[in-house]
Amino acid sequence: MMPTEERIAAIWRELLARDGAGPGADIGPDDDFFALGGTSMQAMALVQRLREEFGVQVGLGAVLQDPTLRAVGAAVTAAGGAPEAAAPAGTRAAAEGDGGTGRP
């Protein structure tokens, strides 16, 4: 799996309560968010988490159109959220001097 996909899989595990080493904890690139039990409300939470984690806006429509981990990862990358470009939450904002608010 690509680093972006691994980070997104971690978000999926949290949203879908699939933490741990038991069955269902492994999420692969071709797994479907909804087939794993995700709901439309969780998909909205996923879009928010992608924005927080990667600093990019991925539309809910993109997730609904192709909800595989690979496709969501591609959407994040296409929006400019490549692993090397993303900073941990608050890091980029703090470096820009806005105190983490996201505002100038």
TrEMBL record:
Q: Which GO terms describe its molecular function?
A: phosphopantetheine binding
Can you supply a Gene Ontology BP term from the record?
A: amino acid activation for nonribosomal peptide biosynthetic process
**Which Gene3D superfamilies does the record match to this protein?**
ACP-like (1.10.1200.10)
Where the record annotates domain Carrier, the positions are: 2-80
Origin superkingdom: Bacteria
| Pfam families (UniProt xref) | PP-binding
Mark out the compositionally biased spans (Low complexity). Answer: 80-96
The record's region (Disordered) falls at 80-104
InterPro entries reported in the protein's UniProt record: ACP-like_sf (IPR036736), PKS_PP-bd (IPR020806), PP-bd_ACP (IPR009081)
Record keywords, A-Z: Phosphopantetheine, Phosphoprotein
- PROSITE patterns associated with the record: CARRIER
Gene Ontology terms, cellular component aspect? cytoplasm
Instruction: List, alphabetically, the SUPFAM superfamilies matched.
Output: ACP-like
Which protein is depicted? Carrier domain-containing protein
Q: Which organism is it from?
A: Streptomyces sulfonofaciens
